[in-house]
Amino acid sequence: MLGFFFANILSTIPAQTGDWNIISAAIIVTTNETLSRSIYQNQNLKRNFLPNLVNNIRIGIIYGLFVDAFKLGS
Hints:
Distance between the termini: 23 Å
Pfam family, one: DUF565
Keywords: Chloroplast, Plastid
Helix content: over 70%
Family: Belongs to the ycf20 family.
Oligomer: single chain
């Protein structure tokens, strides 16, 4: 639920002017890939609470952006 909330914020606030769509998408994808690499590369991070929480929020953001794309397409 928290990730979906963040996805809604990330997809609407920078796009209000229409100039930041490509830049905000690049930042979101780069951050997502960097977090994925650091979490899945280090086996010790998978067992801790905070990296698990960050990973779940990251997955929620991806899901939320996916749902927002469907809302915009219909």
